[in-house]
Write a structure and sequence with these properties.
Chain lengths: 142, 149
């Protein structure tokens, strides 16, 4: 179990080091099944290209889940997420190879709020492009 | 054809009750590649202070999407799903969702507007236990590329 961060030890402005998460075609197929979102652009290259996409793209919610994991891994098991929002600014293109795409998430402590709440500003990139903007999470810490 | 603005403000009846199962939470956590034990191991979840295994923060999308798909399928809404991409997503949580809970989702179409060449629609879904306790509100903005009137 990961370490537990506490409200008192958090400082505004602290940078949270980037973590990379893989997104392969298998990840997307599994996410289709687990989420019930079978939109063809997440698994069918032919149709993805026919609607103007460069290739199969990851579900926005898959990317949001990776940044969510970044938040909960940092905050620790006794923290709870109070708010979490993102804008999907660019698709994560997932090529049909053994590597797929890499989603790199980093963050910064933006604000300390009342009620032991802390706001984090998040950044997510894939292939040097920002894939999430306005990404922010508020967690309640012990 | 643009999304029909007459649907702005429409609230749909609550969904059929959805039972949050431990197996589904573990499957979802596996699919997002998150090995955190609080999503699959009851003892680990209890050690962290929860009554049972909890859902990852983005899991409520599974419940909200299932109910908002009913709204998206409304005849006359004129949403071209093949051209739809997810624009924004936001969750507000009263508390984590736990395995074993039975919840319902109620969808409201909270915004419809054109932005440039695109048409956008936001749904707001209230997820509550069948006893009426609020758990999570999900705001989903869908963008129909090239959908503006």
């Amino acid at each position: 179990m990961s370490d537990q961060v506490t409200y008192d030890e958090v400082e505004v402005g602290t940078e949270l080091a980037a973590v990379s998460y893989p997104a392969t075609r298998l990840s997307l197929v599994k996410y289709c099944g687990a989420s019930g979102d079978f939109n063809v652009i997440h698994w069918n290259e032919r149709i993805a290209k026919s609607v103007g996409l460069p290739d199969v793209i990851a579900h926005g919610m898959f990317t949001m889940a990776q940044a969510g994991r970044f938040v909960t891994d940092w905050a620790g098991p006794k923290a709870t997420v109070v708010e979490y929002g993102v804008r999907f600014s660019s698709p994560v293109v997932v090529p049909d190879d053994d590597i797929g795409a890499t989603i790199s998430v980093s963050g910064q402590v933006e604000e300390k709020l009342d009620g032991n709440r802390v706001a984090l500003a998040l950044t997510a990139r894939a292939a040097d492009t920002k894939v999430l903007t306005k990404a922010r999470a508020v967690v309640r810490l012990p | 054809m643009a999304i029909n603005p007459d649907f702005l403000g429409k609230t749909f009846s609550p969904s059929e009750p959805y039972e949050v199962s431990r197996a589904k939470l573990a499957e979802f956590a596996d699919a997002i590649g998150d090995p955190n034990p609080v999503y699959r191991d009851r003892a680990a979840a209890q050690e962290a202070g929860f009554a049972d295994v909890i859902a990852p923060p983005t899991f409520p999308i599974v419940i909200s999407m299932a109910s908002s798909s009913r709204a998206l399928a409304e005849p006359g809404l004129n949403l071209n799903y093949a051209m739809v991409v997810h624009g924004e997503q936001r969750f507000e949580y009263s508390r984590p969702l736990h395995a074993g809970e039975v919840v319902t989702a109620q969808v409201t179409i909270s915004d419809i507007r054109d932005v440039g060449r695109n048409s956008m629609m936001t749904t707001t879904t209230q997820i509550s236990t069948v006893d009426g306790e609020h758990v999570c509100t999900a705001h989903s903005t869908l963008v129909e590329r090239g959908g503006a009137a």
